[in-house]
Amino acid sequence: MSEQPGSIDRRVDVAVVGAGMAGLKTALELEARGLTVCLLEARDRVGGRLKPGHIAGHKIDNGGQWVGPQQKLLLAEAEAQGVEKFDQYRQGKSVLDFKGKLSHSRSDVPKMPFVSLLDLQRTVSKLDALAFSLPATAPWSVKNAEGLDGQTFETWIQANVWTEQTREFLRMVTRSLLCCEPKHVSFLYFLEYVRGGEGLDVLLGVKGGAQEAKFRGGAHQITEKMAAMLKSPVLYEAPARAVTQHETHVEIVTDRGTVTADRAVIAIPPTLASRINFANALPVKRDHLMQRMPMGTVIKVHVAYDRPFWRDKGMSGMAVSDTFPCNVFFDQSPEDASCGILVGFIDADAAVEYSPAGDNSRRQAVIDSATQFFGAEAKNPIDYVDNDWMSEEWSKGCYVAHMAPGVMTTYGEALRQPCGCIHWAGTETATQWQGYMDGALQSGIRVAAEIAEQRGLRMAAE
């Protein structure tokens, strides 16, 4: 349900800030337990980091889109909402621009000297072993947490990886997964992300991995269908500006009025939560945690052609580069191949550079990258669109917030800890698949159960 602009002054059991997948799941779970809920959304749409778009007359996802077989919560939610999935196109060879050389391969592993391949295998095994040693709910409590958190991933790479080819591959991995450079992220946080994503092979993989499938009609429609199931309306264009916590309730001031509730759930990224004026000071650890979790920097791009010409050349449309501005491509063509569409990403430092450059500069950089990967046919697209997530007022980046050295061990325990009447959701708070839709759903389920337990409630179905 939705409600048109106007006064929203009201009293409910729980107010939820943010109508992304986490906030929607929280609201649905709470309503199923018989609680009254209002969902406050700053945008004029639901979905958060899921966003619909169009190119060359076809629907696309400008935000999150992929699902892997391990992401059971997302698969179940999609099925419940009647949204079907289909496999990511991957027939043919992928293209890799690595260390100044283009190569084609049916493997996800780049062509490297034998010693470098051994080094890569050794390093990935070591990273997975370290990641899987972390406690799922408290990675900051692992033995040697201070040492792991006291260095960047880049520092660890320099000290532990033998060959430059493997070092550069891991930098590419960090940009692809977190949309930041390894010099900006804590090694402990990187390990926690790998643990939550069930290992590097799963995180990076297509067949059997996190990019295995997409949703027919777009992932964003899952959130639209979830919103339609709510008993209470989503209140649009109602950003939370101030939160005042009293002994028994909380007041949330928005641009459209004030909502009073027994409990509040903040289901937006930490950096956006830090911009809310909490009239009663939050605990120091929570306050400083939100200030120290920046979003990744990424521009998602789509470029369309009259046909998927790369398939004629035996290419899958998948491409990765360690130097091109648009450093990752996938085939995003419609299932009937009525036109050819490539989806790509300008991320990490390259996104910071190209964000202020303007649409035309980004368009040319994307076309140049596609031409380098797929040949001269890529020079003549029929359409182009991009989505600069850093410029979106109510996102400030994508895909997920990350932590610099020292943040997790100093402030991490505040990530999910309620602050009086205030609770925290969002994919960043998940213990599995952080940064993914599955993690967002997990956080909504957790926080609803947290509130219900305090109130002694059960699901209506129980």
Task: Summarize the helices and strands and which ones pair or pack.
Layout: E1 2-3, E2 10-17, H1 21-32, E3 37-40, E4 52-55, E5 58-61, H2 72-80, E6 85-87, E7 93-98, E8 101-105, H3 114-132, H4 145-149, H5 153-160, H6 164-178, H7 187-196, H8 200-204, E9 213-215, H9 220-228, E10 234-235, E11 240-245, E12 250-254, E13 257-266, H10 270-273, E14 277-278, H11 284-291, E15 298-305, H12 309-312, E16 315-321, E17 328-331, E18 340-347, H13 349-354, H14 359-374, E19 383-388, H15 407-411, E20 422-424, H16 437-455
Parallel strand pairs: 1-10, 2-3, 2-13, 3-10, 7-16, 11-14, 13-20
Antiparallel strand pairs: 4-5, 6-9, 7-8, 11-12, 12-13, 15-18, 15-19, 16-17, 17-18
Kindly estimate the percentage of residues that lie in beta strands according to DSSP.
15-25%
The total count of helices amounts to 16
| Helix amount | 25-40%
What Rg do the Cα atoms give?
Answer: 22 Å
Low-confidence stretches: none
Alpha carbon gap, first and last residue: 25 Å
Q: Please, what is the average pLDDT?
A: 94
How does the major sheet shape up? 9 strands, mixed
The total count of strands amounts to 20
Which structural class fits the helix and strand makeup?
A: alpha/beta
CA-based shape: globular
